[in-house]
Design goal:
alpha+beta, SH3 type barrels, five-stranded antiparallel sheet, 22% strand
């Protein structure tokens, strides 16, 4: 049987604190490693996605509702379910975090901060009326990719993840 869990695959977490959350596979370890003797993957995802924003909300409320809480962790293959979706080729999952960052607690915090800062710069994208009016199903899929560092504009994101493309 071929390998279908590769870097860039969108997965759903099945067990633990992040059960039900969507994540992206950053790197795979099919034969395991010294620390983990089982097949596992390094995944990055969104623990808390931004909430809906309306025009009459105050700036304070908007900043609070558009915050993203990302997570980065190693997961056993048994605890993730792959979906049919892959990250577009323009977005490289290897830029999210590295193995060296995951070795120390400070490195893991740094990887989370990097994902959080990139999603903060993408917070303006979420507030635009085009994204507000998108159907909820497509909007949820788009939120998965908010924390990935990229230089795509809103119109390009809509072209990639628009209602008819997913």
């Amino acid at each position: 049987m071929g390998r279908f869990i590769k870097a860039g695959r969108v997965v759903v977490m099945l067990q633990g604190r992040y059960a039900g959350k969507k994540a992206i596979v950053v790197k795979t370890f099919d034969d395991g490693s010294k620390a983990r003797s089982f097949g596992h993957a390094l995944v990055a995802g969104i623990d808390r996605a931004p909430l809906k924003v309306t025009r009459r909300m105050s700036k304070k409320k908007i900043t609070k509702r558009t915050k993203v809480k990302p997570f980065v962790k190693y997961v056993n293959y048994n605890h993730i379910m792959p979906t049919r979706y892959n990250v577009p080729a323009e977005i490289s999952p290897s830029t999210i975090c590295t193995d060296q960052q995951m070795d120390t607690p400070d490195g893991r915090k740094e990887a989370r901060k990097f994902a959080k800062s990139t999603s903060a710069s993408g917070g303006a994208r979420v507030k635009e009326p085009e994204l507000k009016n998108m159907c909820t199903h497509t909007y949820e899929r788009l939120l998965l990719f908010v924390s990935i560092p990229c230089s795509l504009e809103t119109r390009q994101l809509l072209a990639l993840f628009g209602p008819n493309s997913l």
